[in-house]
Amino acid sequence: MMNDLEKGTQEVIEKTLNEDLWINIGVASLKILAIFIISGIVIKVGKAAIHRIFKVRQMSPLRTSERREATIMKLLQSVLTYAVYFIALIMFLSNLGVNVSAILAGAGVVGLAVGFGAQSLVKDIITGFFIIFEDQFAVGDHVKIGQFEGDVEMIGLRTTRVKSWTGEVNIIPNGSIIEVTNFSVHNSLAVVDISVAYEENIQEVEALIQDLLLSLNGKYEEIVKPPELLGVQTLAPSEVIIRVTAETLPMRHLFIARELRREIKLCLDKHGIEIPYPRMVMYSRPETESGLKREVGS
Asked: Which stretches make up the Mechanosensitive ion channel MscS C-terminal domain (predicted)?
């Protein structure tokens, strides 16, 4: 037993001290390190080249919309990263002595089996391609997808990332996107309702508001067309509601609506137009003798 143990120990020591072994390990380590360094350089250079290509396309008369270009650019950069990482992994396994050809040969069979088991993943990828090439929405658009609403930060092969105005980031699988509302394709409409007391002269109020709207021409670059006074919208119990609309750039209607309310409020205050406020009228019925008798009898 001791002789076998000593022989085994001697063989291990001889293999450990073998110069060829350490040379092979060193060469393999350098190759692996070079693979990762070159992969990082290729990804960085490739992303810069893609960005440069789309920057040159911006000066071309045949260019597409900026939204579509930004989306396709991010998609190409993502595909480049995955492709380089896959090639680097194959080269890494090859340097470790793994039979890569056998892995690649079996990848088709495994891929077929995975395809049946990962139908949702395939659906996500196919839907992602249709979203991009049909230009349903793009990076930077303000959209509503199901219960999530916000700005599109990223459209990937599998998921879409939407950031809400309060800061939450929602990761949505592309395959679950059935209906999309895109607020960034066409101009928005700012709707402002102004409440005026019944005691005021409606014609005078409308004339003041109309003059104010004409004076705002060119003041706000977000307004596409001059604001329009539609007239009396509602006769409420204690107020008359006058509606004003303005066509704005996409997703700028909320800002313009706030500015219009401020401008109209200052104008009405300047001319002494009263804004209605809740009122309570108390009616006291005089007590009669018969009423007192009924009360006592009850």
From this structure: 191-275
